[in-house]
């Protein structure tokens, strides 16, 4: 009993010392509203912005606070774009376990010595985070792998620091945070850390990702070695390739390399992330060091920290993103409200709609020169909703955190491009063609005539919208709530007509192959092509 009381007293004293240290650090970075007797004012960060000061505090206070700062960067509903980028620059690395301790942990998980399974186990980790670190290795069978290992001995220290995170309340109040926001953020950060330590769940998510890779040509998923995986140990195949930044550096000397063009990589990364977040079974909430680019341009997403959104939520978020991209604030608000929880003092929905109709994206130069990128528009929606008293539900929060990670990575690769918008438009075009393909594929035609007719009727308008948005270089300000009707562009109508002609040829081929036009195929084909050809000639004449 005495020893227990002594431990409690020692912990309480350590906690008091730590709180005083946190307070002094906040005062030194001028993030206390009141004078602090232990701070003389010498050496303060003169002229530093709020984001820079908060970053300085979190870096000084150690690994847990630094990791919390990286997490806060993704809370785009609570921080501005410039502050988010500042916080995202905090190094997220912890002192790793010694090599001997790593081997002991692996032996404890597998039930036999690490050397029985690994011919090579790199001593220096590829990644070392609060509770998990990753090593490159080679199995005795010769296959290169990555070893993810949970560090259980760090749990008690991390939990003590998590209890001290609310000490930042005064500093975040300076930034105008809602009163309950810090507690919510700390709770979600704790859940995020716990999720990182459940490596069996990560293995199941990777298996879902492998299923998506079969249909998404730019995605590659590593094999999971189930026989070597436990709740604290995850072994996955090394699919090859290099980290994102290294691919760009290598591509600078090999401009023909598809994996080295920063603009193409940025667009491809956004496409893959959007595909997974809006249509796949798993998507990454963070893009960490184990994201790799293969020589053929395919992307291997991080192996842990994957979210599994329900199909209904995905469909709603897909409609939300498209509505934001096509300047439909009312439709975007309707979709967004489904993923929000209203506080007792939240503004009425109609007032939120009014605010969203009048939004102006970030113009502080932190994200894009024009302040009109798709990412900025999506971020503004989140911030206005939060400021209006609406809290993001779990799946929306995961979506926004992953969105920030993807947009920030693309911004580093191609700051002058709206890569997220480019990726979305490519995804929409491919989705439209996929729907047409499914409608006319063998075995899928029966009962699909109405669906196909609707798709064909919508294709010209959809293509027209996509090409128009691409020509404008991105979304227009959402404040244009009632834009004037755009004059029809002849070359766009011509392109749409060509698309109809191509689709008609596919449809005719299907009927002929199925024997449905026996004896009449040539007559119908001639009539169809004369009709569509006449439309094309008329459009060409009108465009002169």
Task: Please outline what is shown here.
With 544 residues, the chain is an alpha+beta fold.
Ends: how far apart?
A: 95 Å
Round the mean pLDDT to the nearest integer and report it: 80
Shape: globular
Radius of gyration: 27 Å
Stretches with pLDDT under 50, minimum 5 residues: 36-43, 444-455, 474-489, 514-519
Number of helices: 20
Residues in β-strands, percent: 5-15%
**Portion of residues in helices?**
55-70%
Label this structure with key terms.
544 residues, alpha+beta, five-stranded antiparallel β-sheet, four-stranded mixed β-sheet, 20 helices, globular
Could you please describe the fold and organization of this structure?
The protein is of the alpha+beta class and 544 residues long. 56% of the residues lie in helices and 8% in strands. It contains 20 helices and 13 strands. The chain has helices spanning 2-28, 50-60, 63-73, 81-88, 99-110, 155-164, 169-174, 181-196, 199-213, 244-253, 262-278, 311-325, 329-337, 349-357, 374-387, 394-413, 419-440, 449-472, 490-514, 521-542, and strands at residues 118-121, 127-128, 132-139, 144-150, 219-220, 233-237, 242-243, 283-284, 292-293, 299-300, 306-307, 340-342, 390-392. Strands 1, 2, 3, 4 and 6 form a five-stranded antiparallel sheet that branches. A four-stranded mixed sheet has the order 5-10-9-7. A two-stranded antiparallel ribbon has the order 8-11. Residues 36-43, 444-455, 474-489 and 514-519 have low confidence and may be disordered.
């Amino acid at each position: 009993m005495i020893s227990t009381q002594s431990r409690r007293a020692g912990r309480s004293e350590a906690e008091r010392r730590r709180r005083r240290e946190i307070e002094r650090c906040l005062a030194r970075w001028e993030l206390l509203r009141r004078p602090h007797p232990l701070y003389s004012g010498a050496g303060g960060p003169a002229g530093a912005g709020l984001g820079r000061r908060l970053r300085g505090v979190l870096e000084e206070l150690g690994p847990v606070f630094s990791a919390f700062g990286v997490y806060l960067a993704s809370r785009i509903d609570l921080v501005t774009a410039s502050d988010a980028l500042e916080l995202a620059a905090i190094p997220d690395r912890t002192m790793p376990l010694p090599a001997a301790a790593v081997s002991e942990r692996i032996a404890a998980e597998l039930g036999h010595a690490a050397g029985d399974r690994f011919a090579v186990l790199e001593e220096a980790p590829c990644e070392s985070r609060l509770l998990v670190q990753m090593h490159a290795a080679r199995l005795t069978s010769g296959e290169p792998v990555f070893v993810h290992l949970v560090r259980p001995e760090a749990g008690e220290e991390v939990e003590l620091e998590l209890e001290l995170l609310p000490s930042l309340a005064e500093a975040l109040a300076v930034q105008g945070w809602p009163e309950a926001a810090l507690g919510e953020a700390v709770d979600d950060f704790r859940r995020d850390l716990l999720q990182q330590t459940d490596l069996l769940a990560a293995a199941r998510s990777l298996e879902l990702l492998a299923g998506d890779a079969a249909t998404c040509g730019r995605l590659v998923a590593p094999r999971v070695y189930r026989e070597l995986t436990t709740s604290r140990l995850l072994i996955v195949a090394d699919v090859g390739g290099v980290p994102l930044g290294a691919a760009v550096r290598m591509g600078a000397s090999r401009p023909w390399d598809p994996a080295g063009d920063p603009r193409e990589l940025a667009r491809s990364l956004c496409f893959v992330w959007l595909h997974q977040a809006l249509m796949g079974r798993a998507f990454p909430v963070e893009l960490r060091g184990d994201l790799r680019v293969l020589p053929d341009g395919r992307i291997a997403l991080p192996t842990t920290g994957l979210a599994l959104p329900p199909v209904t939520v995905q469909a709603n978020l897909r409609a939300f993103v498209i509505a934001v991209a096509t300047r439909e604030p009312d439709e975007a608000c309707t979709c967004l409200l489904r993923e929000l929880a209203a506080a007792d003092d939240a503004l009425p929905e109609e007032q939120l709609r009014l605010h969203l109709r009048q939004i102006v994206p970030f113009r502080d130069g932190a994200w894009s020169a024009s302040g009109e990128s798709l990412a900025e528009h999506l971020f503004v929606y989140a911030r206005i909703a939060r400021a209006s008293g609406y809290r993001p539900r779990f799946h929306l929060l995961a979506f926004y955190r992953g969105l920030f990670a993807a947009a920030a990575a693309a911004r580093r690769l191609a700051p002058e491009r709206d890569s997220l918008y480019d990726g979305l438009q490519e995804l929409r075009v491919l989705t439209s063609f996929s729907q047409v393909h499914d409608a006319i594929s063998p075995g899928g035609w029966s009962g699909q005539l109405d669906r196909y007719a609707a798709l064909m009727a919508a294709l010209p308008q959809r293509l027209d919208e996509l090409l128009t948005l691409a020509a404008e270089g991105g979304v227009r300000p959402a404040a244009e709530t009632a834009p004037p009707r755009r004059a029809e562009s002849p070359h766009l109508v011509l392109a749409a007509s060509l698309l109809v002609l191509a689709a008609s040829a596919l449809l005719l081929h299907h009927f002929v192959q199925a024997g449905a036009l026996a004896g009449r195929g040539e007559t119908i084909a001639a009539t169809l092509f004369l009709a569509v050809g006449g439309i094309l000639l008329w459009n060409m004449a009108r465009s002169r």
